[in-house]
Amino acid sequence: MESLSKNLEEWYGPGNAALQKISIEEYYRDLPGAVILDVGNGGQSAEQQLGPELSTKIARFIGADKSFEMLSRLGDHEKILCDANAIPLADNSVDYCLLNNVIHHFGFNRADGFGSAVSGAIGECLRVARRGIIIVEMTVPRWVQQIESAMVGLTGGMATFVFNADTLRGLLQGAEAVEVTKFKTVRLGELVGDWTLFRAMITVPIKVPAGLIPYTYVFCEVRKVGR
Ligand SMILES: C[S@@+](CC[C@H](N)C(=O)[O-])C[C@H]1O[C@@H](n2cnc3c(N)ncnc32)[C@H](O)[C@@H]1O
After folding, report:
1. Using CB atoms within 10 A as the burial measure, which of 88, 172, 178, 185 is most buried?
2. In sequence order, which residues have a C-beta less than 8 Å from that of residue 112 and are 6 or more positions away?
3. Which of 61, 96, 98, 102 to mutate to test ligand 1, by most ligand atoms within 8 A of the CB atom?
4. What is the pTM of this model?
5. Residue whose CA is closest, atom 9 of ligand 1?
6. CATH number of 2-224: 3.40.30.10, 2.40.128.280, 3.40.50.1000, 3.40.50.150?
7. What confidence score (pLDDT) does residue 27 get?
8. Highest-pLDDT range among 126-135, 171-180, 199-208
9. Sign (positive or negative) of CA dihedral 15, 201, 149, 147
10. Mutate to test the pocket of ligand 1, among 2, 61, 65, 133 (most ligand atoms within 8 A of CB)
């Protein structure tokens, strides 16, 4: 986890600023005055996650993460050490949950069934959030997801499982009484420039042009119906 924490800054650096710009301009407009639970927080303060301007306009920012190391990495904001599947907060006690590049970390255990870790965590976030969830997530082409699924078939599970964008959308739409809105995809190459050198995997130090890496970032809201 320590090396993940160290590599995260370098890996996310160029991409994160571009992701954050889209999030703030297009997805965080309703956040002023809101209570926000940032699930899979990774120790990011409100200012780091929302930018200097928006972070002063929100009512409260709580970071939740299952890893003590990641949670205590940065920031002195309010923090909860917990799994996204079991958040120790009351129903409807925050306005929004943010899930920023976390869903692929929920993994896939063959015994639990495809997508069940995601569905469980999304259900839990919808329980604690009055209004809904805002998601930024890395996704892969369907053929990559098929290879990952074959790996799970062979090994029994993967700690990190990156979904295809349409598959992820289907899983989110499967939650009860929600609508998935503002669903948008942006290729990594579009985000940081096709020729920018980038690490294809956080654990692999070799960099290649971003345009060759088949990641697409998904942005969306999962709104509770009627809110
Ligand atoms: C890639 S980091 C993203 C950190 C931060 N959201 C950001 O945008 O920089 C993923 C984080 O999710 C956390 N995480 C992974 N699985 C989790 C789970 N089941 N429940 C809560 N946190 C989890 C990890 O510990 C890690 O800090």
Report:
1. 172
2. none
3. 102
4. 0.92
5. 42
6. 3.40.50.150
7. 97
8. 126-135
9. positive
10. 65
